Amino acid sequence: MENSNQRLFVIDTNVLMHDPTALFRFQEHDIFLPMTVLEELDRGKKGLSEVARNVRQVSRFIDAMIEQFDSNIEQGIPVAMGAHFEHKIQASGRLFFQTQSLNQQLPADLPGDTADNNILGIALALQDNYPERKITLVSKDINLRIKANVVKLHAEDYFNDKVLEDVDLLSRGFHMLEDGFWEAHSKNMDSWQESGKTFYRLTGPLVSEWKMGEFIILDNVQQPFEAIVRDIEEDTALIEMCQDFMEPGHAIWGINALNIEQNLALNLLTDPEVDFVTLLGAAGTGKTLLTLAAGLAQTLETKRFTEIIMTRVTIPVGEDIGFLPGTEEEKMAPWMGALMDNLEVLTQPNSGGTWGRNATDEFLMSKIKLRSLNFMRGRTFLNRFLIVDEAQNLTPKQMKTLITRAGPGTKVVCLGNVAQIDTPYLTETSSGLTYVVDRFKNWKHSGHITLQTGERSRLAGFAESTL
User: Fold this and answer.
1) How far is Cα 119 from Cα 326, in angstroms, rounded to an integer?
2) Do residues 426 and 395 lie in contact, with contact meaning Cβ atoms separated by under 8 Å?
3) Which residues have CB under 8 Å from 211's CB, separation 6+?
4) 267 CB-near residues (< 8 Å, 6+ apart)
5) With CB atoms 3.0 to 4.6 Å apart as the test, which of 159, 218, 338, 427 could cross-link to 177 if both were Cys?
6) Cα 36 off chain centre by
């Protein structure tokens, strides 16, 4: 291995299992793969899980690079040979494999018979053999990074999967305007009505801060104003007035908005110009209830959608209860408690007794399908209202796979709380939900709202703020 000022990154298996394109994410620096990592990849390649698919993709990347390389493999394979897989990534380093046994100098209380300690020992041996190079162990495993620091080996988390440096930088989906907004933006303003909707075209200094699909709000008691930004050209914006779902006469399936954020969310959920909606918020802010109400209204009343499809990743909060019997829908039913709880609120008829309630529930469930994420690949949904619950537990790749299932006339709604992630190795800044909120933030046919006010009960609100 040539001596160089470039850094040498020793990659742990979980990094490649999490992101198969990690091989191309280290720019001009070199990568080292211990034989233990290749063995772990080989053991993890079987199955239909997302991890198994990622492992097989890594193997394909490595195999393609080796096929193109006709020199001595000990010299390292230029990572650029695989760059055609990731055309947006410029990688100029080299990929090295462990081609010989390395003298591992582990402390006596860290035997090398475990995979993690074996990788740690190899990284320490490289540090001894190449003192002029900075050796860094990259792992998603916190305990392995701690052990590396204890034995004085530099270790880092894998940061390239992070969408934002801090989740607090994530957009709330709206801008609060100052009281002097109209004075600064009413010059040369055009306004008109079309199909019962009010539009404004205005120019001003704040337009540069707005994005298409975002809301602008003037929370003034005398002159409240809520509008969505439809289009932006340089310093001119086209905005449309929002509907007021807080008025009793404007309820959606019997549900009224209880605060500004819920009103904006209902505007997005019922807007035919918006194909993709993300709702973030803590427990009790109304994400599922608002979404189901909007879905039922547009499926059964306006007939815009043929049915509602609801799905979520099946990760238990506690111990797994094992295999579940029945069909796909029967297996998914225990994971859809949120759906059933909210349907109880939305489907209580004023008359008809027990028979009326049962008939209503049976009719509505005929329009609501529960689907597993495991069987989404290759499908196309036409004119469906697709709800992805607990979306914070999806990886960016899973999110892409799911959203690309949408066919003509389909609306996709992702619900979640990035503070409650159960998927291993996912964080608030690397979650698929954070990923899509950031990537869709300036597309005119998408919208996002962060719900902040809990409306479930005073007990739930107090618990959310104090526990």
Assistant:
1) 43
2) yes
3) 171, 229, 232, 441, 442
4) 215, 226, 228, 242, 243, 245
5) 218
6) 31
Report the C-alpha gap between 465 and 179 in whole angstroms.
Answer: 31
Q: Facing residues of 78 across strands?
A: 94
Q: With CA atoms as reference, report the closest residue to 418 among 433, 406, 398, 397.
A: 433
Residue 202 tokens read as 């205005």
Give the three-class secondary structure for 409. coil
CB of 302 within 8 A of CB of 439?
A: no
Rounded Cα distance, 436 and 396, in Å: 8
Q: What is the mean pLDDT of the chain?
A: 83
Rg (CA), the chain: 26
Please tell me the number of Cα atoms within 13 Å of 330 on its side-chain side.
Answer: 5
Q: Tokens in use for 123?
A: 């990284």
- Position 442 confidence tier, pLDDT thresholds 50, 70, 90: confident
For residue 414, list its beta bridge partners. Answer: 278, 388
Q: For residue 198, what pLDDT is reported?
A: 93
Comparing C-alpha atoms, which of 247, 255, 177 is closest to residue 215?
Answer: 177
Bridge partners (DSSP) of residue 255 are 252
Which positions ≥6 away from 105 have C-beta within 8 Å?
Answer: 121, 124, 125, 128
What confidence tens digit (pLDDT) does each residue in 67-125 have?
Answer: 888 777 888 888 876 555 544 556 778 899 988 887 777 777 776 678 888 899 999 99
Partners of residue 137 on adjacent β-strands: 10, 155
d(CA 423, CA 112): 28
Structure token pair of residue 153: 């080996």
Go through the domains of the chain in sequence order and give each one's CATH number: 8-156 (3.40.50.1010), 168-241 (2.40.30), 252-466 (3.40.50.300)
Residues 6+ apart with CB under 8 A from 344: none
List the structure tokens of 133: 């190079």
Q: Which helix (H) or strand (E) holds 416?
A: strand 411-416
d(Cα 246, Cα 256) in Å, to the nearest integer?
5
Determine contact, residues 30/92, Cβ cutoff 8 Å: no
Which one, of 3, 6, 9, lies nearest residue 119 by Cα? 9
- Per DSSP, the chain holds a count of helices (H) and strands (E) of 14, 18
Which tens digits make up the pLDDT trace of 358-394?
A: 656 677 777 888 777 766 777 889 999 999 988 998 8
What amino acid is encoded at 194 in this protein? E
What does residue 309 show for φ and ψ, rounded to 5 degrees? -115, 125
